[in-house]
Structure formats: structure tokens, C-alpha cells
Amino acid sequence: MPAYPPPPGLTPRLTTLPSGTELWRCHPAGRGAAEFKTLVAHSHFGGSRFDSTEADPFPYLYVADQPATALAEVFLRSREFGGPGGERLIPWAQAARYRLSRLWTAEPLTLIQLVAEEDLAAVGQDAWLLESEGPGYAQTRQWALALRRGAPRAAGMVWQSRRHRPRNAYVLFGDRCAPGALKAEPEMTYTLSTEDGLWAANRMLAALRAAIYPPDALPDALPDALPGA
Fold first, then answer.
1. Can you tell me the distance from the alpha carbon of 19 to that of 4, in angstroms, rounded to the nearest whole number?
2. Average pLDDT over the chain, rounded to whole?
3. pLDDT given at position 196
4. Which residue has the higher pLDDT, 229 or 19?
């Protein structure tokens, strides 16, 4: 577990995300689907794996290559299989604040690649960088800063989602993406506070044995495909 400060002179491997690539984002309902988050994380507390901090403030957003991956990245963190049917239950009060939206890239984006073991080894890292949780995020954010410095052309990073392997998760850097580099599709947005949106999300989560547990007012939001439903 290489939880040590990043050395100088990192040279990460790069890859290109082609123009027209479909991406999915699970985001707060009050934030636009393609709107970058501008609030930086504390250097030592809270935040997520590769958020920006005051040491390197930049707008950012997280996306995934599949809708279920985007949902899993937000809702399945440390979520145990403890439901009546052995499923992972997500509180509706949490999920109702979110939307699931489809985006696509309007231009090619150069990304730091952290998918294969060789990609991690190239920068002196291993799975710790992608697996560490909670307090470890303060350290992974320092690595993100160093990786950005080592790849000044990179507009983001890609890695294998630990909550929906082998699908990919991404963080994109707003200061390195041209305006309009991401386009949202308003007709492909699921509002999770609605019965239709909740039902659609649960269909996507069913194969991961997870569900957003609906309030009594939405009795039909659990699909039949869900174990235990």
C-alpha cells in the first residue's frame, strides 16, 4: 500500500477519449448535467478521491461510461448487503436529491490513464490509489495534484470503477476542458425524486443487487427484476 507522498517528475500514461463518447453523470438536481463543480475540498477532510483543493483549485466533475456505474459511484460507497433480500438499500431521502444525466464529448479529451496495473506502476502506485476510502482521500487528492502537474495537457483522469468493475469512472478538469467540451442531453435525464426516475434507476441497479428504497407514496418503484422485490 504505497500511501506516501508523490515523488517529483511523475510521467503518467495518457489516453484519448474520442469526440462523441457517451458519458453518464449522477449529480445534484440543482446542478446542470454538464456544470463543473467549483467548490474545492478541504486539504485534509471530506471530499472525494480526486477533488481539487486550495493547493490546486480547479472546477471538476465526475462521470462514468455507463449509467449504472454513475449511480454506483455515488450511492454504493461502503453500502452493505443488508436488505430483506440481501440487497443493498439506498435511502430515498438521499437519492431524491439527484438526477442521472447522459452527456457526450464534443471534442477529443486527453486523459491520464490509471486503468491497468501498468498504468499505476508507471507513476509508482498500485490499487491503493483507487481503493483507499474516507481518510485516504486527503492523500489521493495530493496524488491527483501531482499527476496533473506531470501531465499538463491532460483534461482529466480515467480509472476502473471499484464499485462497478470493469467499467470506467472519470474526473474531468474544468480548467483544461474547452467551453462546450461536454454536451448534455436534456431528454435523457432521470430525476430520481420522481416515480419514473426512481423506477429507471432501480432497473439499472438491479444487477448490482442494489435499490433505492422508495417512500410509501411510490410503491411501484421497485422493479420485479430486483432480488427480494
1. 36
2. 92
3. 94
4. 19
C-alpha pair distances (Å), 104 with each of 45, 115, 158, 184, 221? 32, 21, 15, 7, 28
Q: Which amino acid would we find at residue 227? A: P
pTM, rounded to two decimals: 0.91
Determine the pLDDT at residue 228.
Answer: 35
CA distance 148 to 22: 24
At residue 106's C-alpha, the angle toward residues 100 and 109, to 5°, is: 95
CATH of segment(s) 14-80+101-186: 3.90.175
